Amino acid sequence: MASPQDSVAKTNDQKSTVSARITGEGGKPPSHALISICKSLVAGGVAGGVSRTAVAPLERLKILLQVQNRHNVKYNGTVQGLKYIWKTEGFRGMFKGNGTNCARIIPNSAVKFFSYEQASNGILSLYRLQTGNEEAQLTPLLRLGAGACAGIIAMSATYPMDLVRGRLTVQTEASPQQYRGIFNALSTVFREEGARALYKGWLPSVIGVIPYVGLNFSVYESLKDWLIQTKPLGIAQDSELSVTTRLACGAAAGTIGQTVAYPLDVIRRRMQMGGWKGAASIVSADGKGLEYTGMVDAFRKTVKYEGFGALYKGLVPNSVKVVPSIAIAFVSYEMVKDVLGVEVRISD
């Protein structure tokens, strides 16, 4: 039979448990947790905006290469394509669509990084519970899963912005349909093509984001852990990596992720252009203009009319873009969190 003292102790333990759940780990009040969440979201948003603006010209060229008509080739490569844009559209042409891109990527990046932190923490807790090892750490495969969850959540939340960003980026002075801006494009697509049109290409995006974002986080975090643990050539000091080394880790992660997922990005972009009045001259593969009934049909027609290599159109400028973009995003995120005083990094 339990003594009165045991009953009191048990009640106090239960109260402590409830209090811990309410206040969060370490007894932090809800306001502290909310501030930490906001700081994390701000860091992710800044990272996305800075990284994408830095490579905006290459981003636009990649999309133009992905959707151009093979019977009317204007862009033959990275250098020639950038020169052509500069010659025909000037400085503003180099950054066309970047405002829309940032309006999409800032919330996308904020949600992505925050979702990864939450997903990785949840997966780690379940993993430790399953294995019974409180010291267990995330494996590369578990990081891949956390990254995939984060990518799907972030992409789905901001997908309509990605669709109109692609159309604004492809739009030229000769395009019959002229969108005046982000909100005009959103309202026009909704009015003329219906609500479902705002999510054209969503399926290949979901499938593509799993290896892309998943591998980005998994490779970046795993590579950092390996360098800290093995310290090859004395590259890590006191469990910390230099900015240059972290940039290299981010570059490796971005290169691997985008190479695996790139064909799905091409198909997504072509599906997004379908149904756009006057867009056939841009996206047609046989000179007559094509409509896609779905992801598989888009793959089939692209390969049939243009060959397997068409699935990698724009890969070179995208590779040149991805190396600094992903690297800058990861490092910017960690640096902004340091400046804002957020205790937990994605590695933790």
Automatic annotation (TrEMBL):
Pfam families cross-referenced by the UniProt entry: Mito_carr
UniProt keyword list: Membrane, Mitochondrion, Mitochondrion inner membrane, Repeat, Transmembrane, Transmembrane helix, Transport
GO cellular component: mitochondrial inner membrane
Each Solcar repeat, start to end: 35-122, 138-226, 241-339
Stretches with biased composition (Polar residues): 1-20
Region (Disordered): 1-28
Subcellular location: Mitochondrion inner membrane
Membrane topology: Multi-pass membrane protein
GO BP terms, alphabetized: transmembrane transport
PANTHER family linked to this entry: SOLUTE CARRIER FAMILY 25
UniProt family annotation: Belongs to the mitochondrial carrier (TC 2.A.29) family.
Name of this protein: Mitochondrial carrier protein
